[in-house]
Structures are given as C-alpha cells and as structure tokens.
Design brief:
cell membrane, MFS_trans_sf, 79% helix, LacY/RafB_perm_fam, single chain, 19 helices, Growth Hormone, Chain: A, mainly alpha
Length: 430
C-alpha cells in the first residue's frame, strides 16, 4: 500500500475519499440528531423509549434485508458504481421525504410512518453505508491505496456538518434534513460525472469487473453461512457492536442533552462535542492501520471492544456533563479500532473475492439482526428503569463479548484463507 502523499495523486483514491466525505456529511447533518428529533417534546416528535425502539428495530429489519441484496449485487459488479449512484439518488430526496411524508405519518399513522421511513432510510443510508464502505475497500485493493485513509474522509465529512447540526436543529430540525438533501445531490453528481477508475485513468473497462473465476455465485454465497468460523464472528459482533450501537444511537443523545439546564443548550453543546469527536475519529482512521501493523488485527479488535466497555460503564457511573463529554471522546478511538480491524479480519481469514458479502453478512447484517431483536426491549427497559441501570446491563454484555472474542477470534497467522497480514516486526524479520 502507498502512503497518503502518493494516494493524493491517485484519482480513484480522490474520488473514493470525496464520495465518503459527501455521503457521511449528507447523513450526519440529520442522523446525529435523529434520536433527539424522535424524542424531544419541544423540537421533535415526543416519542417514548418503546416507540423509538420500534423505529430503530424496523429500520434495522429493512436494512438487514437490503444488505443481502446489496452485498450479492456488488460482488457481481466488482467496482462498478451502479448501486452507489442509486444510493446517492435516494439521499438527495431526504428533505422532501422527511418533511412531507415521514414526519406526518409518524405523528398520525405511526406504524405506517415507521415502515415508510425504514424503506427510504435503509435504501439511502443504513444499508447504503455498508455498500459504499465495501465498494471503497474494494477500490483500495484494486487501485493500491489504504482503505482507512479513504474512510477517514467520511469521518471528516460527518464532523464538519455535526459542528453546525446542533445550531440548525435548535432553529428548525427540518433544516438539517434539507441540507442533507443538498449534499446528497452533490454526491450524486460526483459519482455520475467523475469517471475515476475508468480507462481515462489507465484502467481498461474490463478491469472494472471481477474475473469469472473470482466472481462468486449464489451457491457460494449461501455456503458462507455453513462456515462455523463465520458464525463465531457474527456472535461476537452481535453482542459487542450491536449493544454498543443501541447505547450510542438510541439512548446516549437524549441522555447527554438531559444533563444540561435546557434542551437547547444541551443540543448545541452536543453538536459541537459530536463534531470534535468525529474529527478525532477521522484522524484515528488514518492512524489505526499503523496500530494494526504494530499489534495485529486481532489485538486491535479486542482493544476496541475494551474501550466500548469502558465508555458505556463510565456513562452509567457519572452524571457530570464535563466528565460524560470526556468519556464520549472514547468513541473517537473505539470506532476505528473496531471497524477497520473487523474488515481486515474478513479479508485475512476468508476469500477476498467475497469481501463485500462477508462484510455485509458478517458485520453489517449481524449487527442489524441484533438491532431488530434488541432495540425495542432495551427501549422498554429504559422506560422502566432509566438510563443508568440500562447502561450497566449493556456494559456487562459487552464485557462478556470481549471475553468471548479473546477465546474465539483467530490469530493473524491462523487459518489465513485470504490476504496475509504481516505486523511490522514480521516485516523486519523477513
């Protein structure tokens, strides 16, 4: 792989990075306050914990179904961008959909609104993110650049808009959705008009598809579910990342803004803190590949889970806004230390030709199954017992998942059926 300076001269890297930046910006401008919009009595819909859990659960179910389709189709397409263009098209209509369809339905016909939102948001964002990340990872291997260095621009995009999201939200939450539409439109134009990776950059049209020998069939994809080693990682993801996601997305925003004297102050501070956190996260996206080369894929993944546990438990034990803000910053370290190693784990221990399907099934799909099953029960648990006790339960589950992973995750030199991984010390020795 090349360094960042060389990558900046690589057109496919530049387009992949800009695509990541614009997609996460179009998503983050409203998603960072989505849970607050659902629950706020003054500036949102005023839903209770069980209703919010239902929204997230049905969203995850729709996302789950789409991920199988996205993974299979993208593995057939190789690095062609047809699906990515479809995703960007949907993101460009976020504002009109939320203003004229989604909000009225959630207020007057709740379940119909939940279903409509699940379809649109999953097609454009919740399943779309896994598709675009898998496509970017495939571009990185085909055109010789670090996936983490491209993915970090997505975090930068999220951070840039998060800085303004809180202030826009206190004016009118719909502004956030409309800004997301505008950014989505720019993303769509970039994907359609910029032909990076095509023959104009020295790559023949035939190179955009995978060879017949490496293109997986449906039977081969279904055969993945027969692999015991894949189920081991699926269980690990479900009991670590899934519980953490429910905590971070479904509960933490409202918990944090409730620590302040007024919701408006809490929302503005949350937006600024979220932006700072994501800027640090973006930086970590470029640093984590270096950490992996030093400690290995498996060790980096276990470190990420350990930080998850510390952050959730910390929020259960303190209620001072400054301390909770400091604890939230752990998310900037944990997310890259989980996402990048888990992707590399799949390409290390499984057939790289199935990377998109493996990522969809082994990480994204397993996480969504967990969200379908857990969002509503955990929302009801919060309604009955409050945030702190719920956080303690979630942190306990994540701790058990980390112990399970310590004993079940394969070492970097064990069952290497994909691209081998060498730590820096191994490179020096060879």
């Amino acid at each position: 792989m090349t360094d960042l300076k060389t990558s900046l001269k690589n057109p496919p890297y530049l387009q992949s990075s800009l695509s990541m930046l614009l997609f996460f910006a179009s998503w983050g401008i409203w998603w960072s306050f989505f849970q607050i919009w659902l629950t706020s009595e003054t500036s949102g819909l005023g839903l209770n914990g069980a209703q919010v859990g239902t929204v997230y659960s049905v969203n995850s179910l729709a996302t789950l179904l789409l991920m199988f389709l996205y993974g299979a189709l993208q593995d057939k397409l190789g690095i062609k961008k047809h699906l990515a263009i479809g995703v960007a098209t949907v993101t460009a209509f976020t504002g009109p959909f939320c203003l004229w369809i989604y909000q009225p339905l959630l207020q007057d016909h709740f379940m119909l609104g939940v279903i409509a939102g699940a379809v649109v948001l999953s097609v454009g964002f919740l399943a779309g993110v896994g598709l675009l990340e898998a496509l970017t990872e495939r571009f990185s291997r085909r055109f010789n650049f670090e996936y983490g260095q491209a993915r970090m621009w997505g975090s930068f995009g999220y951070a840039i808009v998060a800085l303004a999201a809180g202030f826009l939200f206190t004016i009118n939450p719909m502004i956030n959705f409309w800004v997301g539409s505008a950014i989505g439109l720019v993303h769509l134009l970039i994907l359609v008009l910029w032909k990076a990776g095509s023959k104009q950059h020295g790559f023949a049209e035939g190179q955009l598809k995978m060879s017949a020998a490496s293109t997986p069939g449906v039977k081969e994809m279904l055969g993945l579910l027969k692999l015991p080693s894949l189920w081991l990682i699926i269980l690990f993801v479900m009991f670590s990342w899934t519980f953490y996601t429910v905590f971070d997305q479904q509960m933490f925003p409202d918990f944090y803004t409730g620590l302040f004297e007024s919701q408006e102050t809490g929302q503005q501070v949350y937006g600024v803190l979220n932006s700072v956190q994501v800027f640090v996260e973006a930086t970590m996206m470029g640093i984590v590949p270096l950490i992996m080369r030093r400690v290995g894929v498996r060790s980096a993944l276990l470190i990420g889970v350990s930080i998850m546990f510390v952050r959730i438990l910390g929020c259960a034990l303190v209620d001072d806004p400054i301390l909770v803000s400091a604890i939230k910053m752990l998310h900037a370290i944990e997310t890259p230390l989980f996402i990048l190693p888990i992707f590399r784990y799949f390409t290390l221990h499984f057939n790289p030709a199935l990377s998109a399907t493996l990522y969809m099934v082994g990480f994204q799909v397993s996480a969504q199954i967990g969200n379908v099953l857990l969002s509503t029960p955990l929302g009801m648990l919060h309604d009955g017992l409050g945030y702190k006790f719920t956080f303690m339960i979630i942190s306990g589950v994540v701790l058990l998942a980390g112990i399970y992973g310590f004993y079940t995750l394969k070492k970097d030199d064990e069952q290497v059926d994909g691209d081998p991984f060498m730590r820096n010390v191994e490179r020096a020795a060879s």
